[in-house]
Amino acid sequence: MLFIRLTKEQQELIIADIQSFFYNNRDEDITEFEAERVFDFMKEYVAPHIYNAAISDAKYVMERQLSTIEDELASLERPIKIK
Q1: What's the distance, Cα to Cα, between the start and end of the chain in Å?
Q2: Higher pLDDT, residue 64 or 2
Q3: 28 CB contacts (<8 Å, ≥6 apart)?
Q4: How many CB atoms lie within 10 A of CB 55?
């Protein structure tokens, strides 16, 4: 289970957005309770896919940045003279 931390205001906005979506795209008036059920479904079944994709994207960016830092550090190395 994801630990989604949303404020009450954020949750209310999302629920209102879900209601608006159903009204504007499906010509359905859904109750706040029904919108909450849709939101719960999204959190449980859809959000983990999006979350994992975001983590994968962040990992890719961090690996690229680490590679760049390693290259920059390697360029600072000086040759060691052997007698």
Answers
A1: 62
A2: 64
A3: 22
A4: 10
Residue 65 has pLDDT above 60, yes or no: yes
Greatest extent of the chain over all pairs of C-alpha atoms, in Å: 85
Phi, psi of 2 (to 5 degrees): -80, 145
CA distance 15 to 35: 6
Please, which residues have CB within 8 angstroms of residue 16's CB and are 6 or more apart in sequence?
Answer: 35
Token duo for residue 37:
């059920």
Q: How far apart are CA 28 and CA 20, in angstroms?
A: 9
Rounded Cα distance between 21 and 27, Å, is 9
Residue with tokens 């931390």: 5
